[in-house]
Amino acid sequence: MKAIRVNEYGGPEVLSYEDVEIPEPGPGQARVRLAASGVNFIDVYQRTGVYPIDPPFTLGQEGAGEVEAVGEGVEEISPGDHVAFAGVMGSYAEYVVAPVEKLVPFNVVYVEARMAAAVMLQGMTAHYLTHSTFPLQEGQTTLVHAAAGGVGLILCQLAKMRGARVIGTVSTDEKAKLAKSAGADEVILYTEQDFAEEARRITDGEGVHVVYDSVGKDTFDKSLDSLRPRGYLVLFGGSSGQVPPIDLQVLNQKGSLFVTRPKLADHVATREELLWRAQSLFTWIGQNNLNVRVGGSYRLSEADQAHRDLEGRKTTGKLILIP
Ligand code: NDP
Q1: What is the structure's pLDDT at 261?
Q2: Do 2-121+269-322 and 136-261 fold alike per CATH?
Q3: CB atoms < 10 A from the CB of 39, how many?
Q4: CB 231 near ligand 1, within 6 Å
Q5: Helix, strand, coil percentages, rounded to 5, for the chain
Q6: Pairing of strands 227-235, 57-58
Q7: DSSP 270
């Protein structure tokens, strides 16, 4: 089968389209023939070694497709079932072997396989951010950075579902339109305007209850300045680079602020939580209450281009690879 391998850390050019053996499922595992694989920013961190994995390895950790074979002792899933997953390495490939406890079944009548692949990682992230890390309540105000991105567009919609007022930040007018269509009440062009000043102006000087910040290095300080006293900064990524260590006294001076740095794996650690988040998303998609925008669809062999576009801030919504 074909797969995208990383033989050494580096730029998008290190993504190597190679022939590898089709993997065999062991006990408790299933082999999935992938209909689509999701591209995520974490793939960039792993390609560059920011999140180290010893090369060589097959990149990617999200996808959806059809179960083709199961290993010993597997009863809950059978060949022919449609399943999606996040957090299983090796999805930039035609087939992946996954532990069955990581697989979420879905009904292709209501959710297309490409859509299932597109929503798992970014959708469950938006879900835990709005439902668990800082469970938004009716009438609260949130600032969402990179609001037209993969996580961003879903985050705007879930924040609105919870009754919050959403202020998005984006880099271009085109992205501003998309953020608005995802429900953002206000959008700030943070490449042109001081977003902290704007967030304060929009909230009559009070500041927002929570900032969901995935941009990191470039936005962190001003994200703190956008908060009201006792507000929450949820730092969940570093698209512009990782945030350097901070002096905790700053949190005191700026109004008894909270900062957290969560990750998805800790929010889908049990089967119950995984199914709650994934099936909620599938239900909303099936009911047309959640729109997942696939902003770019690439052939598996074009994974390097998908990475260039993602890192170049050229993309909106989700990017997927089709094997
Ligand atoms: P996005 O689609 O959001 O793409 C990144 C966006 O970030 C860009 O489009 C751009 O939007 C913005 N950005 C701002 N500065 C930069 C920069 N210097 N370089 C590149 N992009 C920049 O990606 P994803 O939805 O895949 O991921 C968003 C973030 O969420 C990532 O940081 C990722 O690591 C994080 N994440 C964290 C998870 C967790 O559990 N902790 C899980 C999933 C994702 P604009 O042009 O509008 O500025």
Answers
A1: 98
A2: no
A3: 28
A4: no
A5: 35, 30, 40
A6: unpaired
A7: S
Q: What is the pLDDT of residues 177-230, one digit of tens each?
A: 999 999 999 999 999 999 999 999 999 999 999 999 999 999 999 999 999 999
Report the separation in Å between the CA atom of 129 and the middle of ligand 1, taken as the mean of its atom positions: 15
pLDDT in tens, 109-128: 899 999 999 999 999 999 99
For ligand 1, whether the C-beta of 308 sits within 6 Å is no
| Domain boundaries along the sequence of the chain | 2-121+269-322, 136-261
Q: Ligand 1 in contact with 146 (CB < 6 A)?
A: yes
CATH of span 136-261: 3.40.50.720
pTM here? 0.98
Cis peptide before 56 (omega within 30 of 0): yes
Distance of alpha carbon 59 from alpha carbon 189, whole angstroms: 33
Contacts of 154 (CB under 8 A, 6+ apart): 119, 122, 123, 125, 126, 182, 290, 292
Structure tokens at 263: 């990750």
Q: Which CATH number fits domain 2-121+269-322: 3.30.1020.10, 3.40.50.720, 3.90.180.10, 3.40.30.10?
A: 3.90.180.10
Question: Low-confidence residues of the chain, pLDDT below 70?
Answer: none
The string of DSSP letters for 259-279 reads EE---GGGGS-SHHHHHHHHH
